[in-house]
Amino acid sequence: MSIKVYVPLDSGSVALGADDVATAIAQKATTAGADVKVVRNGSFGMYWLEPMVEVETSHGRVAYGPVTPEDVDALFAADFLTGGEHKLYLGRTENIPFLKSQTRLTFQRCGFIDPVSLEDYRAYDGLTGLKNALEMTDEQIVQSVTDSGLRGRGGAGFPTGIKWKTVRDAPADQKYIVCNADEGDSGTFADRMIMEGEPFVLIEGMIIAGLATGATKGYVYTRSEYPAAIRIMNEAIEVARANGVLGDNILGSGKTFDMEVRMGAGAYVCGEETSLLNSMEGKRGVVRAKPPLPALEGFMGRPTVVNNVISLCSVPVILEKGADYYRDFGMGRSRGTIPIQIAGNVKHGGLYEVGFGLTLGEIVEQIGGGTATGRPIKAVQVGGPLGAYFPKELFDTPFDYEEFAKRDGLIGHAGVVVFDDTVDLMKQARFAMEFCAIESCGKCTPCRIGSIRGTEVVDKLTRGEDPELQIELLTDLCNTMKFGSLCALGGFTPYPVMSALTHFPDDFKPHALDIAAE
Ligand SMILES: Cc1cc2nc3c(=O)[nH]c(=O)nc-3n(C[C@H](O)[C@H](O)[C@H](O)COP(=O)(O)O)c2cc1C
Ligand code: SF4
């Protein structure tokens, strides 16, 4: 029997040379006469070890990494096909501390399986949640998701069960499930990783959402910058259709659900759910005023569930193991697990899924291992471009929606971006305003005009023009944007700006101004 060698195919690993490594291994196996089958799997999300190559040995899957094509000859010489010793040897995959210390519920199969093999997915208990859901009434499914305490992972943390109930209770001839896979937040990649590494879990989650709400059609709206995710999702949808998982007779139940992938043209604001719906309808990506809620009048004016990829991918395990099982993880009103994405200037960047409640300090210092540069951490931005900058003094904040809100921060899509002591927070504040100005949909004045005035005020600070007045103006402007904007793009831009000003006032003093004036 062939020896299975796993080389990840996800975009992160490919960017680090995984395709060349896979080719080099296949070629060397041919010349060495070794019976090797190279399997392209998803990434486990330990990006500092990618491309991480694994071998299926008699004592389990063992890993080597990061591997370059130049290492391949030496790996063969070291007998890596039987798990031989080599300087890149990492031991059994499941025992790598970064992976072993996680609670992988949503990402439980990502990395272990060939992403488009339904056989692999079933072998790792895939589709069990769907099978259970098919035995339940729509009301019971909604109740189970409500009881699990699952909250939207796209940013707002809205209870998923309540959203589903609204759609379920809305009378309509047609309802829709729209998966928000726009993933625009800086430092985030969980949606991409799971679509590339375990697409069937998203398909399963969307079918369950359809059964719960009466929707028979689903769309995955994703960004054009994710070509591999689009390709893999499309392939998986074809496989699911061919095997009776999607279509008019889901697993022989007589129930119907089908789905397709739609590609966005690339605008941060198109991740906002109403703007996304406009974009899907072929209109300009402009935010719609609410009400009506998308749950009542969404895609094509019909009741629509709009959920993030990770929210939907968390549903199968809830239906598989029960609401209580999921709810037992976490703290306070933040239940279950959260796939944290650790990025920026950090030693061990990657995806870390764990129950809510770790402190920010534990995440960046212990799990992330501190900065990649080895310099002290100065600030951590949590929650994407609209998230606050947290200083070291706030590292005791637990990863929890309410705890972050109490400290004027947000979890968002759980992206954590680390900065060392060379970062200039006044520059970052300007960047936040500039980002908002560029990405604003233009519908409301506080965001459209306020963000431009904001960059001008920071520029005046940079030039040292009447600093006290500028700081007063900036604070006032942030209040106007926070309370007067129609959506969270204008409404949350004050978070990075004000946190920078509050926690790093020295960066706003004249000594730092010449740096910002570059
Ligand atoms: C400017 C802006 C950008 C957003 N981008 C995304 C995004 O990329 N992905 C996402 O899931 N939600 C995004 N959201 C949140 C969505 O509007 C919406 O709350 C979410 O898709 C609902 O799904 P959930 O309940 O599963 O989180 C964004 C919101 C705003 C205001
Ligand atoms: S806050 Fe900005 S992005 Fe949101 S509706 Fe207003 S102008 Fe558009």
From TrEMBL:
This is Formate dehydrogenase. The keyword Cytoplasm does not apply. GO terms for molecular function: 4 iron, 4 sulfur cluster binding; FMN binding; metal ion binding; NADH dehydrogenase (ubiquinone) activity. Gene3D superfamilies: 3.10.20.600, 6.10.250.1450, NADH-ubiquinone oxidoreductase 51kDa subunit, NADH-ubiquinone oxidoreductase 51kDa subunit, iron-sulphur binding domain. InterPro entries: NADH-UbQ_OxRdtase_51kDa_CS (IPR001949), Nuo51_FMN-bd (IPR011538), Nuo51_FMN-bd_sf (IPR037225), Nuop51_4Fe4S-bd (IPR019575), Nuop51_4Fe4S-bd_sf (IPR037207), Thioredoxin-like_sf (IPR036249). PROSITE patterns: COMPLEX1_51K_1, COMPLEX1_51K_2. The keyword Nucleotide-binding does not apply. It comes from Thalassospira lohafexi. Belongs to the complex I 51 kDa subunit family. Keywords: 4Fe-4S, Iron, Iron-sulfur, Metal-binding. Residues 426-471 form the NADH-ubiquinone oxidoreductase 51kDa subunit iron-sulphur binding domain. Transmembrane segments: none annotated. Its cofactor is FMN; [4Fe-4S] cluster.
